[in-house]
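Quick log. Single chain, no ligands specified.
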Amino acid sequence: MDLSSINPVLLIASLMVSATPILLAALGELVVEKSGVLNLGVEGMMITGAICGFAIGVNTGSPVLGFMFAAFSGALLSLAFGILTQYLLSNQVATGLGLTLVGLGLSSLIGKPYEGIKSPTLQKMELPVLSDIPIVGKMLFSHDPMVYFSILLVTATWAVLKYSRAGLILRAVGESHDAAHALGYKVVRIRILAILFGGACAGLAGAYISLVRVPQWTEGMTAGAGWIALAIVVFASWKPWRILIGAYLFGGVTVLQLNLQAAGAKVPIEVLSMSPYLITIAVLVFISARGNHGAPAALGKIFHASR
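-> predicted structure:
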């Protein structure tokens, strides 16, 4: 095995690209769960965003329009989940799983004509002065705009949840929807808005995979990323900055195992390929052993205003 073939600069740069879709999807799900709703349909919204963004990007030649439509399609799919769970009071777990199945089937149907087609992609952003710094510039400051947008979104989400009145209300709804309702807050409306935000983030995450990370359409290309995003929310104990750490750790392990394969590591490829998922499971088992670690008290519970 030739470890000298692994370039640490490219490794870190690739890590940031690999982590971005997971980060976006996990951040959206964090906001949803903070409102007390458990949406297991992240994978379905991601794959729908991936094909919708890809289709618009290919047909218009604009990846920006592709990302916008991907966010819209993810939000639209999440709205169906919101209506079913918040107005018709269906089971959140079953509805989320159904949403994933719908997304996978819908993407397969829409994506058939787009197989084997290359899409336009986002150009890298060269940040003045910062991009010219030796080593660090190439590593951290020569990425596409979505990498930086995802980090800014983490910052904004953290600030809103911690310091704003809107964040306080959202957290109150997630901790005790009955108490929030008694204070006059529109619990269902707040949760619907959180669900739409989560769907838009999942759509953006899917579009990032099909328009930037792998600029072509392949059926099932999200490859379980939505489930990893759900796991990272638990890993992060429902805290935005820990979401960033968790996504970058998973992205780092994913990129490292690909580099080890290229370097000729004497480990079966199957073991290397499944290592990111094994590490995620191990971390979740460790965290679960600690007991209650920050889950919103009303998470997954049905709210009915007449009770």
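The two ends are 65 Å apart (CA to CA).
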